[in-house]
Write a structure and sequence with these properties.
binds N-acetyl-L-glutamyl 5-phosphate; acetylglutamate kinase activity; binds adenosine-5'-diphosphate; globular; two-stranded antiparallel ribbon; eight-stranded mixed beta sheet; alpha/beta; single chain; amino-acid biosynthesis
Length: 262
């Protein structure tokens, strides 16, 4: 079996039913190559916390998650976001299965830093569950909630979660968000990015917030897997179709500048 494409989905798509349905239709039509979806859902977390009258802050693009809030965050990500995405794929006739990072020991998660609360850092774990599901033609849909060795639930940034899954499966890695890729200071798409260009753009603030987390995660994956990582958008159906045919769209992140193929 070919290595699966690991595709991460994040951003406001969870608030846009049409975009979500269109994307799931495109994904469900991919028969030639196994797919694994990893997803975020920060917008759902934010709306739930706001509903509950709770304030949420981010440091360096990561959500500070007080231990008193992790149950709500789990509900939003492993519950609402995971089940909405699973449902949207099932509606297209593909047998999707919703999981979190802890299921079957897929990923090992430990506390990142006490200053973030219940935020985890994620490493690859046991691929057996995914292999079994893929062999049986299920489409795994994985939320970024992790389970630590301490039995605690952790909130993991979904780009970092996708990188851990990508490293484990060694397939192409694509991070989709609500922008078409990394944009320069004039708002123009940057088609390729290596380590030093990325560092300069982060130092100048052109790449910041969630995109800085994404670019760092992509560089880490590109270096570890010795392959390029694609950062693209879910809004452009044509670009998405090209991507699923193996063409590179958006921004190609290449940590060492010597790797050629997506
Ligand atoms: N240079 C940049 N190019 C594109 N987006 C950027 C850049 N710097 C910061 N951003 C912000 O990063 C966001 C994407 O990151 P994020 O919101 O974390 O995406 P997701 O939720 O899909 O993981 C964009 O919507 C934009 O607001
Ligand atoms: C620690 C941390 O920042 N966790 C993220 C997890 C969800 C996520 O990454 O969602 P998007 O991909 O949609 O942004 C959060 O709570 O927002």
């Amino acid at each position: 079996m070919l290595e699966p494409i690991v595709l991460k989905l994040g951003g406001a798509i969870f608030e846009n039913e049409t975009a979500l349905a269109n994307l799931c239709q495109a994904l469900a039509s991919v028969q030639e190559r196994p797919l694994v979806l990893v997803h975020g859902g920060g917008v759902i977390v934010e709306s739930l916390l706001a509903h509950l009258g709770l304030v949420s802050e981010k440091i360096e693009g990561l959500r500070v998650t007080p231990h008193t809030q992790i149950d709500y965050v789990t509900g939003a990500l492993a519950g609402t976001a995971n089940k909405k995405l699973t449902a949207a794929i099932l509606r297209q006739g593909r047998a999707a299965v919703g999981l979190c990072l802890g299921d079957g020991g897929l990923c090992r998660v430990t506390e990142l830093d006490a200053k973030f609360g219940a935020v985890g850092q994620c490493d690859s774990g046991d691929p057996e569950l995914l292999s079994t599901l893929l062999e049986q033609h299920y489409l795994p849909v994985i939320s970024s909630i992790g389970i630590g060795d301490d039995g605690q639930l952790y909130n993991v940034n979904a780009d970092q979660a996708a990188v851990a899954i990508g490293k484990m499966l060694q397939g192409p890695l694509v991070l989709l968000s609500d922008v078409p890729g990394v944009l320069d200071e004039n708002g123009q798409l940057i088609e390729s990015l290596d380590q030093s260009q990325a560092e300069q753009l982060m130092a100048s603030g052109t790449i910041h917030g969630g995109m800085a987390v994404k670019v760092k995660a992509a560089l880490d994956a590109s270096e570890a897997m010795q392959q390029v990582v694609i950062l693209a958008g879910w809004k452009d159906a044509d670009a998405l179709a090209k991507l699923l045919m193996g063409e590179s769209v958006g921004t190609t992140v290449n940590a060492t500048n010597t790797i050629e193929k997506y």
